[in-house]
Amino acid sequence: MKQTHSIPEIYNPDVPYGAKCEIMDQLCQALARHKGMERFELRDYLLERIHVDFENLENNPVGMLLLYEYLHSQRPGVCIRSTEKQLN
Q: How far is residue 24's CA from residue 59's CA, in Å, rounded to a whole number?
C-alpha cells in the first residue's frame, strides 16, 4: 500500500481514545472555519456525506477513521503542498 501521508496520531495505539476525539473535534472546527460554515452546518454536511457524526465519536472508532481520512482529503491546497515537501 502506498503511503500518502505521514502516520497521524489518530492511528497511534498509545494515544488515548478521548484525545483522538479531541483531535477530530479540532480538525472539524478548522474545516468549518476554512469553508465559512458554522459547526452545526458542517455536522449536517458530514452526516449527509459520510454518515459520521463528529460530535458522537465516543463509541465509533471506525467512524473516526473514516472521518479522519475524509478530512485529510479535504485539506486546503497549501497544506497538501506543505505535506508533499515534507515527504520528499
A: 14
What pLDDT is attached to residue 35? Answer: 86
Q: Is residue 4 part of a domain?
A: no
Question: Is there a domain that residue 2 lies in?
Answer: no
| Residue 88 pLDDT | 55
Q: What is the DSSP letter of 24?
A: H
Assigned domain for 1 exists: no
Q: What residues in the chain have per-residue pLDDT under 50?
A: 1
C-alpha cell at 22: 479531541
pTM, 2 dp: 0.75
Domain containing 24: what range? 9-87
What's the rounded Cα separation, in Å, for the pair 39 and 17?
Answer: 22
Residue 3 lies in a domain: no
Among 14, 80, 70, residue whose Cα is nearest residue 45: 70
